[in-house]
């Protein structure tokens, strides 16, 4: 039986060799002329072991050593039993183990054994990595919140973190980086040698300067210049990590001065730092968005990305362009090798065949390029996944054996989770693998289906790739952002053609910057055009009123979104047979995303017709709008979040703003200014004369200067008018000798007339300033207003005399839901209601809009 089987296999191999020889002869006898479809079905045998290792790593990182040991031993024993049974079964069948035959008996047992072996290996690797966090002195020191002197080796690029505004002043800007602590000295003089991964947080000291000084304080921190592999010595407080994530502790460094460097970075990291610095210098002369985006697009350097631009990329699901991924490496390798499908055929393309470079030398060059890519771009999860997958494909190319990219991806996942089990819990790694899997499995089939329906091939491929990646990644993105983007697919399609030229030209600028800066600047200028286009698409998509919908940010919500996606795809298959229905659904989706104000008003009733004054729901902060004509409004304060205030203004249909009044410089009133200025015509910005806090005042001037908007200062007695809207500044006094007790008491207060409606906007005035306002020349004018914007988010500190004088019919309060300040205070609400006022607040009623006048005064909620 064995000899007969071997003879059959020999004859079959001879037939295959004859076929291959004929094809080679027809194509000139060169290597690789065989058509790639002769490879047969996709080999999925490595997928179960890779998934099993991934799941095991995620589970066993926190497991006890005894449980890990038992799991590993049990899996190895069971794998041995399965293989023993298979060998016996093959021997009884009269075949030699290891000889490939036509029917491949026992392969399920081999796959099961491979899964068990990978589970054992993953358990051991994860157990060892997890135990690393529990060994050494740092976990015990973190429990005591001890202060230590630590010597650490930096393992990631330092990055600035600007926390969200949660009160009058934003949290201090911090520099974060990962490091391995090598030596620890406690206060009692004990010195311990260790190697423990930590997160280091350096609170950057803000530069307290005059109002005319630059605000570069935190941007010029010397901590940002540190390179990976640098050793530093710091005095820090050790605290427990919030959620683990591969670190044993957090070291909070309170001294923001020049770091004490005790070990220089490696030569490779110095070269990488020089290249990255050269790219930043080459992009200095570009437009702001292109200058910020290009380093992030090329090497993942996001230091210049502003919070609003970063939010725009997240809203449109374009954040993957800022994180270096497999697409970056693929673009560079395709430039060298050509399309992967032609890599081993006589028609192969790319620079390598044009330069006469052989196939194996091309693979070696590709490997060197991949290594350099990892060093320059840093070993982030997406970079490692791209490099591992590329290395497997290059190895197949070098040995002359074509392999499906599915086994390459599975091999990459398996090797990476065994090398670094913490990747198994990384959302970035999960999204990277899902996106790649979508491009390799769903996209080709969807592209073929679209081409069968007469969609142009290039458009079909791009549309299928974007839709497939969105379908698989959207549930995970919903867990992270609690939001589903409705513009992700069109935005990804619009930037697809710009990513490749921006990446290639950016890498060219990166490579030439250290030796020929003028050439690098010219290349960066060329790359700035497609990079600017990508930023414009992100900003435009994020600015659409219906760019996304809120979604439960949990794994239950992810499961619901996955089910909804499947249902949508099944319905889509049927709709494709009916072009008219497809067109109707497309129009409905377009209307849902664009949300034209007239249509939105009919459907939702917001904003109400003829609204005079609107209070935006921006959380714990102030942002209000005075209607001044069609699409025109005067904005008073900008709230704490650019996204929220921008969204509010868009739903109100505001495109032109004659004046922005910033009552004072607390962050919950001015931090959202970029959202107010985004895409709108702004005539001027008016502020209080009291320039505190200094950093927020400088922030306002900087944002205004970038957009060419003049900044003026308000003073009591000033009167203005636009259309039927007029207002008078009643506070602060023009006398510079009158110094307020703080920023709140320096708030700009406005008495507004909108046709027959009288409104009083008090900013954040405290009782001392409220009493002074009553005694001022404007005091008599405050009697009997229609609408009162209650001071300081309805806090308990209100002057009863001012409330009695104003006697509002309607009192509106801007406060954030579940805020920690107790706003609005129950006593303030009760006092206003006792005077006969109707009291509404954004924390309970959402955005509010005032309509009518006199007896017809009304208010509507969003």
Overview of this protein structure:
The protein is α/β, with parallel strands linked by helices. The protein is 48% helix and 15% strand. The chain contains 28 helices and 26 strands. An 8-stranded mixed sheet has the order 17-16-14-12-11-10-25-26, with no helix packed on it. The protein has a 7-stranded mixed sheet with strand order 18-19-20-21-22-23-24. The chain has a 5-stranded mixed beta barrel with strand order 1-3-4-6-5. Strand 18 and strand 19 form a beta hairpin. The longest helix has 28 residues, at 65-92. The chain is globular. Mean pLDDT is 80; it is low at 1-39, 96-105 and 206-219.
> Uncertain segments of ≥5 residues (pLDDT<50)?
1-39, 96-105, 206-219
Summarize the amount of helix as a percent range.
40-55%
Q: Can you tell me the overall shape?
A: globular
Strand order of the largest sheet: 17-16-14-12-11-10-25-26
Largest sheet: 8 strands, mixed
Query: What percent strand?
Result: 5-15%
CA-based gyration radius: 32 Å
Topology diagram in text:
Blueprint (H helix, E strand, L loop, with lengths): L1 H25 L20 H14 L4 H28 L14 H28 L3 H6 L3 E8 L4 E3 L12 E12 L5 E13 L27 E9 L9 E5 L6 E4 L3 H16 L5 H12 L7 H9 L10 H12 L13 H4 L4 H19 L3 H18 L6 H15 L7 H26 L4 H25 L1 E3 L2 H25 L4 H27 L4 E3 L4 H21 L3 H16 L2 H8 L6 E5 L8 E4 L5 E4 L5 H10 L4 E2 L2 E3 L4 H4 L2 H5 L3 E2 L2 E3 L6 H14 L3 E3 L5 E4 L2 E7 L17 E6 L2 E5 L5 H9 L11 E3 L10 H7 L3 E4 L12 H9 L3 E4 H4 L2 E4 L6 E4 L1
Parallel strand pairs: 4-6, 12-14, 13-15, 14-16, 16-17, 21-22, 22-23, 23-24
Antiparallel strand pairs: 1-3, 1-5, 2-3, 3-4, 5-6, 5-7, 8-9, 10-11, 10-25, 11-12, 18-19, 19-20, 20-21, 25-26
Helix pairs in contact: 2-4, 2-13, 3-4, 4-13, 6-16, 6-17, 7-16, 7-17, 8-17, 9-11, 9-12, 11-12, 12-13, 13-14, 14-15, 15-16, 15-18, 16-17
């Amino acid at each position: 039986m064995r000899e007969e089987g071997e003879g059959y296999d020999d004859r079959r191999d001879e037939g295959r060799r004859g076929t291959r020889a004929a094809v080679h002869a027809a194509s000139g006898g060169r290597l690789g002329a065989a058509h790639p479809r002769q490879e047969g079905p996709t080999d999925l045998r490595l997928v179960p072991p890779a998934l099993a290792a991934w799941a095991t790593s995620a589970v066993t990182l926190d497991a006890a050593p005894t449980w890990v040991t038992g799991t590993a031993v049990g899996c190895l024993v069971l794998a041995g039993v399965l293989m023993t049974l298979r060998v016996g079964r093959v021997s009884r069948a009269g075949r030699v183990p290891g000889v490939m035959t036509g029917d491949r008996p026992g392969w399920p047992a081999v796959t099961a054994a491979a899964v068990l072996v990978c589970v054992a290996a993953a358990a051991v690797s994860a157990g060892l990595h997890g135990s690393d966090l529990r060994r050494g002195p740092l976990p015990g020191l973190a429990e005591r919140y001890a202060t230590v002197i630590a010597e650490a080796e930096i393992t990631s690029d330092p990055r600035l973190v600007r926390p969200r505004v949660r009160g009058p002043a934003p949290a201090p800007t911090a520099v974060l980086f990962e490091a391995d602590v090598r030596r620890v000295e406690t206060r009692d003089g004990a010195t311990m040698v260790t190697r423990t991964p930590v997160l280091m947080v350096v609170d950057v000291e803000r530069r307290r300067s005059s109002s005319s000084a630059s605000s570069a304080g935190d941007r010029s921190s010397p901590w940002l210049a540190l390179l990976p592999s640098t050793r530093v010595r710091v005095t820090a407080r050790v605290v427990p990590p919030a959620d683990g994530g591969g670190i044993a502790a957090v070291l909070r460094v309170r001294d923001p001065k020049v770091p004490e460097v005790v070990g220089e970075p490696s030569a490779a990291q110095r070269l990488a730092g020089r290249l990255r610095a050269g790219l930043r210098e080459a992009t200095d002369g570009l437009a702001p968005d292109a200058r910020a985006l290009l380093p992030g697009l090329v090497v993942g350097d996001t230091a210049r990305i502003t919070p609003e631009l970063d939010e725009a990329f997240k809203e449109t699901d374009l954040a993957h362009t800022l994180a270096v991924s497999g697409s970056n490496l693929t673009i560079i390798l395709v430039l060298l090798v050509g399309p992967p499908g032609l890599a081993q055929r006589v028609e192969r393309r790319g620079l390598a065949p044009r330069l006469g470079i052989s196939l194996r030398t091309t693979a070696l060059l590709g490997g060197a390029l991949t290594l350099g890519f990892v060093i320059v771009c840093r070993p982030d999860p997406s970079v490692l996944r791209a490099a591992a997958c590329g290395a497997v494909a290059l190895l197949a190319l070098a040995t002359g054996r074509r392999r499906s990219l599915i086994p390459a991806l599975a091999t990459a996942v398996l090797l990476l989770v065994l090398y670094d089990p913490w990747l198994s819990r990384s959302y970035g790694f999960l999204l990277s693998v899902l996106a790649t899997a979508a491009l390799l499995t769903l996209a080709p089939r969807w592209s073929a289906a679209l081409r069968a329906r007469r969609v142009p091939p290039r458009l079909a491929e791009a549309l299928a790739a974007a839709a497939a990646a969105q379908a698989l990644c959207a549930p995970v993105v919903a867990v992270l952002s609690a939001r589903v983007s409705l513009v992700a697919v069109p935005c990804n399609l619009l930037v697809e053609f710009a990513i490749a030229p921006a990446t290639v030209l950016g890498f060219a600028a990166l490579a030439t910057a250290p030796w020929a800066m003028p050439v690098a600047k010219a290349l960066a200028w060329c790359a700035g055009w497609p990079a600017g286009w990508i930023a414009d698409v992100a900003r435009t998509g994020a600015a659409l009123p219906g760019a996304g919908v809120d979604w439960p940010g949990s794994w239950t919500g992810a499961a619901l979104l996955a089910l909804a996606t499947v249902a949508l795809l099944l319905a889509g298959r049927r709709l494709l047979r009916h072009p008219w229905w497809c067109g109707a659904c497309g129009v409905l989706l377009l209307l849902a995303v664009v949300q034209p104000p007239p249509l939105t008003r009919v459907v939702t009733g917001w904003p109400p017709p003829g609204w005079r004054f609107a209070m935006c729901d921006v959380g714990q902060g102030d942002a209000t709008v005075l209607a001044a004509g069609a699409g025109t409004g005067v904005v008073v304060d900008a709230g704490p979040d650019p996204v929220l205030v921008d969204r509010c203004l868009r739903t109100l249909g505001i495109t032109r703003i004659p004046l922005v009044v910033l009552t004072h410089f607390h962050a919950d009133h001015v931090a959202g200014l970029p959202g107010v200025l985004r895409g709108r015509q702004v005539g001027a910005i008016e502020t209080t004369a009291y320039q505190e806090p200094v950093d927020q005042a400088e922030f306002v001037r900087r944002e205004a200067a970038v957009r060419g908007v003049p900044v003026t200062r308000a003073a009591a007695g000033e009167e203005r008018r636009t259309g039927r809207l007029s207002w008078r500044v009643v506070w602060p006094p023009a006398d510079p000798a009158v110094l307020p007790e703080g920023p709140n008491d320096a708030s700009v207060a406005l008495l507004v007339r909108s046709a027959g409606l009288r409104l009083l906007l008090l900013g954040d005035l405290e009782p001392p300033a409220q009493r002074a306002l009553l005694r001022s020349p404007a005091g008599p004018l405050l009697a009997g207003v229609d609408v009162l914007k209650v001071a300081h988010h309805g806090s308990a500190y209100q002057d009863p005399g001012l409330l009695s004088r104003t006697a509002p019919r309607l009192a509106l309060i801007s406060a954030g839901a579940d805020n920690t300040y107790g706003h609005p205070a129950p006593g303030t609400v009760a006092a206003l209601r006792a005077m006969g006022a109707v009291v509404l607040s954004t924390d309970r009623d959402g955005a509010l809009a005032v309509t009518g006048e006199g007896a017809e005064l009304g208010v509507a909620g969003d």
